[in-house]
Amino acid sequence: MIVSRLGGRLVRSSAMAAAFAVFALLSMQGASPQGLIKLRLATIPSDFAAELYYAKDQGFFEKAGFDVDITPLNAGPAIASAVAGGAIDLGFSNVVSLALAHDKGLPFVIVAPANMYVVGAPTIGLIGVARTSTINSAKDLTGKTLAVGVIHNITDLGARAWIDATGGDSKTVHYLEVPIPEMAVAVKSGRVDAAVMDQGVDPTLGKPNDPLRVLANSFSVVSPYFLAGGWFTTSDWIKNHPAETKKFADVMHETAVWANAHHDESAVILGRYLNESPDQIRAITRVTYGTTLNPQLVQPSIELCAKYGVIKATFPGRDLLWDGR
Fold it and tell me: Which residues constitute the domain of residue 169?
């Protein structure tokens, strides 16, 4: 395996800087309206993690007695740092990141499902290349540079699994950490040969007028159906806030059911937060949100981590899940 950790320190320092920014932002926010419980939440601004926006706009949080502050962060490590440090109560993460945290002894717990991976309607894990590229197979990636969100994370491991399962050798590929919103630019500029992309961040990916095309649906080799991301907090926060944890989980369930059935309305809400037109969002394959915490649906990500040696050994998926659901 050939790995380029360009800005490896920058990735960590950026996460810390973002966490400090969260602390500063929250310190300036006022008290909650009388009778409402303040919740500090963080998400990645994309369709795959947009439930917080829908719940707020539809009044689900207020109905449950919550006054929420939503902080958008582009980096998962920044959300993890903010939750661990107490600046954020609950946040979004992919399951691979939480499996790695569990392996290191960090007390993160998934309390509600977020985005599902559905093989027939993929929205994440899409390997994009230039439309004129000569790369047409996993084998063609030999010696090439592939952009991933974070080394040893879900975009990286999913791509490796697809390469190895379809005739290539993941050890011959150069991996470069690139923020997900910058993936398309990195490919178009020639900085990288391919990138693991999210259609929610790049709605034009693979469309007829897009200079990029989709080479592969990389997560298809992990499992045809699994929980890709979830809403998490620490075990201490759950212990100190059992009622709030249950109410939050209930809101996320209500939101998932609503969002899965109301794509037109959610496109308007998400477009407002992402500064994109609703038609752009309607044109993409929309995310399916999970409605139940099922250990079997988190197990594929854990097995992926174990296969590539980023955790010491596999463990039961239930170890990552809140036991009050």
Answer: 126-221
| pLDDT of 25 strictly over 70 | no
To the question of pTM greater than 0.85 for the whole model, the response is yes
What CATH number should be reported for the domain holding residue 72?
Answer: 3.40.190.10
Query: DSSP secondary-structure letter at 173?
Result: S
Residues 190 and 99 in one domain: no
Between CA 166 and CA 308 the distance in angstroms is 16
Exposure string over 161-199, b if 16+ CB within 10 A, otherwise e: bbbbeeebebeebbbbbbbbeebbebbeeeebbbbbbbb
Per-residue pLDDT tens for 50-88? 999 999 999 999 999 999 999 999 777 889 999 999 999
Are the beta carbons of 174 and 2 closer than 8 angstroms? yes
Measured CA to CA, the distance from residue 175 to residue 6 in angstroms comes to 10
